[in-house]
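Figure 6 in text form: structure in, sequence out.
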C-alpha cells in the first residue's frame, strides 16, 4: 500500500525500485523533516523511527528531525505566509522545507480553505488509516473548502491530516472550595457541565478565551451536542432564544477568560490571591491543565461522564512539499509509526500505564482507538468515577493514563467546522 502525497506525483528518482519486498537494502541517507510544536511530538519517536525503518523497510539510514515552533498557530502562520509569497528566500529555505508539519485540529479548516496544505491522496488505502479511531477519520475528512462532508456526499471528501496526539476538555477543581460549597446547603453538587451554571459558582469559573467553546458547552448542556446539531441553524426559534439566554448566563459565571492567570493563582497554597479565592473551577484542555494538577493536593482534574470535547494534533502535508517516491514511502512509514502505538511502551503494571514521552494530559492516538473499541464492545475498564467526586465525574490520573474512560469517549466528539451563522452568533 502506497501513500501519494500529491495529486499528481510522477517523480521516481529510484528507478522504480521502491517495492518494500526488494531484497536490496537502500543504505543511502534520508532525512525526514518534521515541523511541530514544542511538547506536541515525543522526542523518543526520532530514535525509535530510525530503528523501525531498519526493521520494517529496505531503507536502512533514515533520520527524522524535529523542527520546533515556539507558539500555537505558528505552523499555520508560516504556511499561510509562504502561500501568499510573504516569506523571504532565506526564511523560506529554513522554515518551509518540512515534509510534514503539525496543525491543531482547530486550524484545519483555515489551512484547507487557504490552500496551505495538500490532501493525502490514497490515505484510505493505507494500514494506518484502518487503525485510526472513527472519530478521527471523521475529523480530517473534508471537502476542498475545509467543511465536513456528511454521509452520502463523501465523493467530495479528502483526507487532509493524520491525528497522532489527542486530549480533551476537562475541569481542574479546587476540591476544598467546591466541597465547602456542596456542604453549605445551597443544593449544589459538581457532577456535569450543566453545574457550571449553578448560582453558587457565579464569578468562580475560569474558561478559555474561545467563543466557540462557550457555544459548544451551551449546546451540550441543552442536549444539542453532536455533529448535526452543532449548527445553530438547526435550532428552532424557541430553542435559539433559550440558547442565547443560557450563553449569557454562562458568561456571567466567568471570573476570567484567561486560563493561564487562573492556573497561576490556583496552584498557590500559601498566599491566597483574590483570583484564587474566587475561582473554584477552571475549564480547559487537558494538556494545559494536567501539568498543574500536581502543584497542589487541593487540585483535582475531572471530566463528566456525559461526554466532553476532544482535540487533536495532526500531521499535515505542506502545500510546497514535493516528495520523491522514496520520501513518500518514508512519510507513509512515519504516519504508521506515530499512530500505531509502537512508540509508546507499557510499564507492565496492573494499570497498563503507557509511557510515550508525551506531555501529561496528551495521549497517542492509538490509546483513543483502544478506548473507542472498548466503548463499542461495551467493556468497562474499571470504576467509572472516583468515589470522592461522585458518579458523574471521572478523575484523570495515572491509573487511566490521564484520559477519560471509554464510556465518556463514546459520548464525546471533536469540534467540527462551524457555519458562518454560528460564528457570528458567538459575538452576540
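Output sequence:
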Amino acid at each position: 500500500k502506497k501513500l501519494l502525497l500529491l495529486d499528481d506525483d510522477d517523480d521516481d528518482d529510484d528507478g522504480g525500485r521502491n517495492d518494500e519486498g526488494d531484497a536490496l537494502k537502500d543504505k543511502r541517507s534520508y532525512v525526514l523533516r518534521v515541523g511541530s510544536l514544542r511538547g506536541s511530538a515525543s522526542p523518543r519517536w526520532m530514535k525509535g523511527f530510525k530503528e523501525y525503518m531498519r526493521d520494517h523497510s529496505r531503507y536502512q539510514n533514515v533520520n527524522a528531525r524535529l523542527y520546533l515552533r515556539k507558539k500555537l498557530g505558528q505552523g499555520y502562520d508560516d504556511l499561510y505566509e509562504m502561500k501568499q509569497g510573504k516569506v523571504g528566500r532565506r526564511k523560506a529555505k529554513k522554515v518551509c522545507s518540512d515534509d510534514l508539519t503539525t496543525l491543531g485540529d482547530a486550524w484545519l479548516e483555515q489551512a484547507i480553505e487557504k490552500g496551505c496544505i495538500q490532501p493525502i491522496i490514497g490515505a484510505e488505502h493505507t494500514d494506518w488509516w484502518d487503525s485510526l479511531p472513527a472519530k478521527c477519520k471523521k475529523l480530517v475528512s473534508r471537502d476542498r473548502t475545509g467543511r465536513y462532508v456528511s454521509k452520502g456526499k463523501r465523493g467530495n471528501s479528502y483526507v487532509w491530516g493524520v491525528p497522532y496526539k489527542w486530549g480533551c476538555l476537562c475541569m481542574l477543581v479546587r476540591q476544598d472550595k467546591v466541597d465547602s460549597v456542596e456542604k453549605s446547603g445551597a443544593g449544589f453538587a459538581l457532577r456535569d457541565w450543566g453545574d457550571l451554571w449553578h448560582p453558587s459558582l457565579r464569578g468562580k469559573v475560569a474558561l478559555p478565551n474561545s467563543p466557540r467553546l462557550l457555544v459548544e458547552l451551551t449546546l451540550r448542556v441543552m442536549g444539542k451536542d453532536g455533529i448535526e446539531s452543532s449548527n445553530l441553524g438547526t435550532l428552532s426559534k424557541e430553542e435559539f432564544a433559550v440558547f442565547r439566554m443560557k450563553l449569557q448566563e454562562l458568561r456571567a459565571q466567568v471570573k476570567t477568560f484567561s486560563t493561564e492567570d487562573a492556573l497561576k493563582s490556583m496552584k498557590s497554597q500559601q498566599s491566597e490571591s483574590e483570583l484564587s479565592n474566587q475561582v473554584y473551577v477552571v475549564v480547559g484542555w487537558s494538556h494545559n491543565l494536567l501539568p498543574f494538577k500536581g502543584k497542589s493536593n487541593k487540585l483535582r482534574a475531572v471530566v463528566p461522564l456525559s461526554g466532553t470535547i476532544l482535540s487533536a494534533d495532526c500531521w499535515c502535508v505542506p502545500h510546497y512539499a514535493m516528495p520523491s517516491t522514496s520520501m513518500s514511502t518514508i512519510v507513509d512509514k512515519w504516519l504508521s509509526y506515530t499512530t500505531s502505538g509502537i512508540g509508546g511502551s507499557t510499564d507492565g503494571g496492573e494499570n497498563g500505564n503507557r509511557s510515550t514521552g508525551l506531555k501529561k494530559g496528551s495521549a497517542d492516538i492509538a490509546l483513543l482507538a483502544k478506548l473507542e473499541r472498548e466503548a463499542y464492545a461495551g467493556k468497562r475498564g474499571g470504576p467509572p468515577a472516583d468515589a470522592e467526586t461522585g458518579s458523574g465525574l471521572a478523575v484523570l490520573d495515572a491509573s487511566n493514563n490521564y484520559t477519560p474512560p471509554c464510556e465518556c469517549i463514546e459520548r464525546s466528539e471533536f469540534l467540527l467546522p462551524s457555519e458562518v451563522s454560528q460564528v457570528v452568533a458567538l459575538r452576540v
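Caption detail: The two ends are 50 Å apart (CA to CA).
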